[in-house]
Design goal:
It is an enzyme of class 3 (hydrolase). Belongs to the peptidase C19 family. GO terms for molecular function: cysteine-type deubiquitinase activity. The protein is an alpha+beta fold. Helix content is 35%, strand content 25%. It contains 14 helices and 21 strands. Strands 6, 10, 14, 17, 18, 19, 20 and 21 form an 8-stranded mixed β-sheet that branches. A 5-stranded mixed β-sheet has the order 3-8-9-4-5. It has a two-stranded parallel ribbon with strand order 1-2. α3 crosses α7. The longest helix has 21 residues. It is elongated, with a radius of gyration of 27 Å. It starts with a helix and ends with a strand.
Amino acid sequence: MHLLKAATVLLGSAYGVYSLEEYYKHNYTPRDLPPGLKNTKATICFANSILQALSFDDTFATEVDEVVKTAYKESKGTVESRDALRKLRDILRRLATIPSYKHLLDAEPVVSTFMDTSQEQDAHEFLTALMHLIDGHRAKATATSPKCSFAGVLGTPEMDPVRTAPLPSLTGTCTTSYTCINCCGRAPFSISRFNSLLLPIPVPSDAQGTGANVLPSCTLESCLDDFFKEEIIDGVACMKCGAVKLLPLMTERMMANLASDDYMAGAEFTKGVDALQTFIHATNVGAASTGKIFEGVQVPLRPMPSRATKTTHLTALPQTLMLHINRVAMLRGQARKLRNKVIYPDKLDMGAYVGMPDGKDAPTGAVEGPDGVVMATEEDIARYTRPEVWYNLKAVVCHAGNEAGGHYYTYRVSAGRVFKCSDRDVTEVSMDEMFTTRAFQMAVTLVYGRSG
């Protein structure tokens, strides 16, 4: 009788007559805890932990639901991938339901669609693969990504201002700029998207090469500082350096031709000298602008080897911020798991890493980039007072084990309550347990939700 009723409800739900939730409410005893997740093969804790960490984000679940509707309506992707997305949507909905009626869910059919579940994988790799699956089924309006403009040649890339729909809840944008150390020439900003940030653990200079995998404690803010710090890039080729070197030679030949009364040749060299001077004094010159400057001018301009500084800033912050701590490092030629205490806060201000203002108060001279992000010049940025952008801690994914393997589990916050989710085992714990020394040493993924 129970099986007959289940079949009736399942068939009814397919035609919109009954819902599965109604069936669960009538046939399962409610439990004042989130559901757990099966791990039959003992290999998918990496996926279970990320799904539990994302369960608080209603917007993400809604976005997945929209992707599912679009995928089925337009027959996008394979049947298997569409079914996986539908099951993912159902799992996210039920993980967020407290009290829960179905106490145990199975994510293995979802995970096995795009990852090998025969062995343990990395939680960060799972999130990357999951977002790749979702993005691959998004509507075309939101699937277009801005092109990275830097191509190793300063002065030639061009920013591609792609127009897209609003960013998904897990997606942010950042800009990267390169400045030549020799001539101070700048390439145009390149814009890229991210669903998560992979943060390094700062290793003190006196600890490098020691082989120790237990290093001094650090803060999450210091990891972010290290991620966004200015870098020196070797082996770049700079067009402006080439122009600076070529200008004296072109000027000398121009003067020689004018002195020999070869005014036609002298006029051609004059055009070349003028174009070189314009190019040298221009800022943020891209490929299209460079083509216009040298249009109709014969100039043997070649890039010169140089070094550049690379700076990265956030331009659009996601609603849900995923921060992965890279705990694997090469020590004495071997991969080792770093067991540093990374002290993370309950509330995180990301304003210090926002390099471009947005909205109506953007400084004059700003240019508009993808997704309505307003980008400014470096001079504007220097004068700009960075805003406060606050996030609240929503989940902590921990990894107990070493570089070869171990077990993932999650602390997740829901309506002021904290739950420890370790596959099928779900228990309520105190808020303090998320901020112990053990948690600071085991944390590999931090999930923050934007406040306000």
